[in-house]
Amino acid sequence: MENIITYLKPVSILKKIFGTIIFLFAFYTIVYQSMLFGFFMISFAVYLISSEGTQINLDNRTYRNIWSIFAIHFGKWKPIPEFEYISVFKGKQKQRVNSLGASTTFTDVVFLINLFYDRNKHITFYRTFEKENALKVAQHFKLALGIDILDATERQQKWLD
Questions:
Q1: Membrane-spanning regions, if any (predicted)?
Q2: Using one digit for the tens of pLDDT, what is the confidence trace for 115-137?
């Protein structure tokens, strides 16, 4: 069995339920109503219940960014560069919402797990809204890859044990 680390962006249970209901109703629509509208509904349901993430295959020394639906992962494997360290970084994520001519922007704090190589190049492997979760994932990468963690969530950066 291959040694693969998989991290997926969580999907809320309400989105999963709503997406599944739309998915089932889409088949009814395809058979009894409009095939075009049914396929549109299926694409919307897939959007709701799908997730994005990352996988690392430690045996083959490869990684991939994945798109996942019903536990089936899609993505192209690439060779892992020689990682130097892990950074847990605190940033901001903006989301713009438009509705009926009005718009607003929401800003959330997000924690990113970046794996650095070749001095300043990095690959973002994980994104979460909770600092404890980010540090837990970083510890998992530290154990799997044997590299150090830089905590860049505060103004004063520090190396973790």
A1: 21-49, 97-117
A2: 999 988 998 888 888 899 899 98
Whole-angstrom distance, CA of residue 131 vs CA of residue 51: 21
Residue 85, domain extent: 81-155
Statement to judge: residues 113 and 146 lie in one domain:
yes
* 1 pLDDT higher than 60: no
Task: Say if pTM beats, i.e. exceeds, 0.85.
Answer: no
What's the angle, vertex CA 85, arms to CA 148 and CA 134, rounded to 5?
A: 75
DSSP code of 143?
Answer: H
Letter string b/e over residues 113-135, b meaning 16 or more CB atoms within 10 A of that residue's CB: bbbbeeeeebbebbbbeeeeebb
41 and 89 part of one domain: no
- Is residue 160 included in any domain, yes or no? no
Q: How many domains does the chain have?
A: 2
